[in-house]
């Protein structure tokens, strides 16, 4: 498969290029800055760089595009790519509004293109193991979940994420959207309503850098979620508590396959092993399989719409001080 990168991004450099090359070659990179694009291409062994997305989409050899630009660009770039008949992996959040994200999904569905959201955490062995434990009934009926994803955003990733609401900055579109996908993945439920409080705790300039929220699931189970850019030493984790036991997954909300899982029941505490697969490799493997007609991507466009819908409800609830229903745009 021949790929193009739209966005000369850090995430592509650190994670996605090697995953894409497991299944072919990266032929192009598109950057809004010509010098940056040329330097990026040279540094990563990419044959061609351009500032013109249309030039890339006119290349009949390009079969799929990975989009990792700033958030406000995702919609137009994805729609152009879909119109050119290319498959798409798009970074989260898919768009700045649920309606725009729904339109992206509809555009890809009509011609039968694979449209995936790069929700990497659901590709981790730890999250898939927690999901299996829940599905097997090892903790009985789920009563509540706790997601702790308060980290320190390193300086080289700060930039627009901490000071530019116009391009989708803030911890809610950056991390809460991931945690919404994780909860949906683990439980199979779509949150119904949320309450939230957000603020600036030392990094944000015009956008929130910390948020806490509580979500209600259709089953009645509740979710407590905490995201931040400013917690250097807090660690990450998720907990799932049920009528017959609890699952404690520590250090698992990361881009690396690390951490530990403990299952606690009346029988005691059991350490649960999990595979240490590369999250991004798994995502690309399943995307390519979907393109070849074997299954579906790890997270498809609908998953991207729904995680965005939860995140936007959290932002609205934090801004208004009211409980907000989650609007999934008809999906």
UniProtKB/TrEMBL annotation:
UniProt xrefs under SUPFAM superfamilies: Glyceraldehyde-3-phosphate dehydrogenase-like, C-terminal domain (SSF55347), NAD(P)-binding Rossmann-fold domains (SSF51735)
Family annotation (InterPro entries): Gfo/Idh/MocA-like_OxRdtase_N, Gfo/Idh/MocA_Oxidoreductases, GFO_IDH_MocA-like_dom, NAD(P)-bd_dom_sf
Alphabetical list of Pfam families matching this protein: GFO_IDH_MocA, GFO_IDH_MocA_C3
Residue span(s) of domain GFO/IDH/MocA-like oxidoreductase: 127-247
Superkingdom, natural source: Bacteria
GO molecular function annotations of the record: nucleotide binding
Domain Gfo/Idh/MocA-like oxidoreductase N-terminal: 2-119
PANTHER family hit by this protein: BILIVERDIN REDUCTASE A
Name of the protein: Gfo/Idh/MocA family oxidoreductase
Organism this protein belongs to: Neotabrizicola shimadae
């Amino acid at each position: 498969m021949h790929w193009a990168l739209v966005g000369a991004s850090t995430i592509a450099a650190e994670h996605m290029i090697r995953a894409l090359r497991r299944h072919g070659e990266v032929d192009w990179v598109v950057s809004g800055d010509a010098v940056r694009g040329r330097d990026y291409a040279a540094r990563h062994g990419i044959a061609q760089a351009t500032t013109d997305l249309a030039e890339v989409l006119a290349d009949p050899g390009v079969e799929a595009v990975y989009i990792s630009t700033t958030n406000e660009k995702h919609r137009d770039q994805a729609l152009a790519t879909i119109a050119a008949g290319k498959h798409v992996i798009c970074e989260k959040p898919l768009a700045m509004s649920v309606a725009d994200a729904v339109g992206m999904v509809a555009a890809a569905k009509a011609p039968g293109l694979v449209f995936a959201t790069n929700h990497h955490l659901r590709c981790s062995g730890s999250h898939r193991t927690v999901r299996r434990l829940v599905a097997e009934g090892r903790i009985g009926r789920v009563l509540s979940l706790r997601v702790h994803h308060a980290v320190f955003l390193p300086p080289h990733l700060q930039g627009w994420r901490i000071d530019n609401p116009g391009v989708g900055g803030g911890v809610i579109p950056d991390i809460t959207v991931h945690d919404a996908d994780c909860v949906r993945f683990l439980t199979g439920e779509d949150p119904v309503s949320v309450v939230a409080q957000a603020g600036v705790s030392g990094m944000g300039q015009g956008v929130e850098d910390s948020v806490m929220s509580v979500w209600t699931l259709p089953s009645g189970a509740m979710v407590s979620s905490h995201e931040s850019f400013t917690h250097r030493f807090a660690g990450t984790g998720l907990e799932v508590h049920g009528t017959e036991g609890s699952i404690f997954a520590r250090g698992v909300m990361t881009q690396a396959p690390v951490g530990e899982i403990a299952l606690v029941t009346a029988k005691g505490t059991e350490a649960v092993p999990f595979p240490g697969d590369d999250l991004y490799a798994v995502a690309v493997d399943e995307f390519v399989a979907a393109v070849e007609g074997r299954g579906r991507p790890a997270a498809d466009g609908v998953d991207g719409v729904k995680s965005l819908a939860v995140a936007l409800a959290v932002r609205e609830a934090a801004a208004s001080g009211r409980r907000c229903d989650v609007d999934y745009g008809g999906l």
